[in-house]
Predict the structure.
Amino acid sequence: MAYWCVARSEPNREATAVHFLDLAGYATYLPRIREQRTTHGRRYVVTPALFPNYLFARIERGWWRARWSCGVTSLIMAGEEPAKVADAVIDGIKCREHGGFVVLPDAPRFRPGDPVRVLHGPLEGRLGLFAGMRGAQRVAVLLQFLGTAVLPAADVEALSR
């Protein structure tokens, strides 16, 4: 049975990992975001990965070739096999894409550390702590829930402390 898993890439080499996984016959998904940055007074747009150094690979037969593909440092494991990411999680991320990029909420209503409950989507009813929107924090959420999508602020509610 086919399933999605999370592959960890070498630092800043997600595109290399995607290329070689594709050559090895795996379907891949590397969600990206669009950010505007300013350096030395000049504005420019960058398109980093939603989860820096992580991507999704679809396992249909064996996973060993994916693990040893160029650009991949490891697969996130659950015991002896790669941890499975639900199709609903991948679909949840894809449905937030506009123009090929995942759109994140502009201004979160929460502060880092605030307890929240997910209101909609595949993780409905789950409790968690708001971690913010920086790349490392998105990765922490991904690893903690093994595939949790970054949710719009409208899809979560704050809980009283």
Summary: The longest strand covers residues 3-9. The chain has one domain: 3-158. Residues 68 and 123 are 31 Å apart (CA to CA).
